[in-house]
Amino acid sequence: MSELSSTNAEMSPPIVNIAAYKFAPLDELTQRREALRALTRRLELKGTILLSPEGINFFLAGARAAVDEFVAVLQADPQVGALDIKESYTERQPFGRMLVKLKREIIAFGVEGIDPSQRTSPKLPAKQLKQWLDEGRPVTLLDVRNDYEVALGTFAGAEPIGVAHFRDFPKAVDALPDDRKEETVVMFCTGGIRCEKAGPYMERAGFKNVFQLEGGILKYFEECGAAHYTGECFVFDDRVAVDGDLQATDAADRLAGEQLGSRPVYERAEAEAWRARQA
Prior knowledge:
The protein is of the alpha/beta class.
């Protein structure tokens, strides 16, 4: 191998991890599933894609060129269009296989009349949230993630909603006292998708000043690092958690054999099936 070839090999890019979602009415779901299965197979991508009449939600990983082609094909679909892609990088593939699934919802909520493609609560950019926190502005930071996710890390002073599953969120909100409905609430989750439904539900319940952190914790880490955040951020792949630099932590090794939610960490086959059930 020449010196130049050796250098190029050493500089080969790591695995690119991407996550995105889009609330947009989709039709011909079976045909879309088969087309995406063929595309991801050809590109040697792994991860999970969820399709439903309300949109698409995916997290997958692969080589740079393969990921770029996948995103280009998806965004060329007129029913999908532009996507807000969140990226991170790993030295190895964090997914064991590729799943393309049809679901009733791309994030299970079970409440009729919530349609983020038509209306959602206002989004607060990551840098603006950091500025508010730097200034000490009085806001209620509401963590809408599941308890086992919150246990690994959250924003300083954040209040967990206290649920084991996101579908329990409406009941938890309904139990909040009326005198809290005047507070300025900034809710957040991993990548933003849960807040797209949680925000409108809180507004429906009478909360008057509700914001959602745009892009979730992962976008905040990308733009602001770990400022005002304590601990790690749980992610639904073999990394288990990432830090403020979007680098995998030692959580997979540290928590091996322990229980997170409804499954232990970290047998790959069981974890893949568990992630699909959570979506």
